[in-house]
Amino acid sequence: MQATIILGILLRSFNPLWRKIALAGLIIETPRLILRTWTTADIEPYYHINQDLKVIQFLRGPLSEAEIQEFIHLKNQQQVERGYTLWAAQLKKTAELLGFIGLNYTDWPAHFTPAVEISWRLGSMHWNQGYATEGAKAALAYGFNTVGLNEIVSFTIPANRPSIRVMEKIGLICHEKGDFAHPRLPAHHPLSHHILYRLTREAYFTQHHHGL
Description:
Elements: E1 4-5, H1 16-23, E2 26-29, E3 33-36, H2 43-49, H3 65-82, E4 86-91, E5 97-106, E6 115-122, H4 131-147, E7 151-156, H5 161-169, E8 173-174, E9 180-181, E10 193-200, H6 201-209
Antiparallel strand pairs: 1-2, 2-3, 3-4, 4-5, 5-6, 7-10, 8-10, 9-10
Helix pairs in contact: 2-3
């Protein structure tokens, strides 16, 4: 799947939907998705996504509206400072916010940090349609081709099989000795134990050279 990377402002003013997307800070376009920076209009739909019990099953809990506002501010700031972030994932066909897909700078203490993580969080009504894989492949390409990253990682708890499947579909490789206790959770917490997947720049281009 070839993603179109848009680095400037999209000027399709004749189409109201595309104009709205352009003003929102379009970063990546895939066949079905737009990955873009966040706007205040995303607060309410993203708040509801983070109340979905299926979505927060492997998270620390639901997010408040104030936490959503802070998240959006910080992720837009990261885009400005680093050239990548956890982008708002929008369905092209309807302009509906699906959640986020993107790249996140991580520097909390762990054996593999500082690192850039690829991550996604979509409303459960949009699961099992290939959106996370489609957007993550595009984010991975952006990270290596546009940003020039040397490595991208991802991590989750062992029970989160849906996310692990996405990691493997996009080419990340399980680091067998990479398990770690998440430093932002108590050691005894049921979500503390995480597994680590990694992909180096060299391995990414090798995979794509062989058509993987």
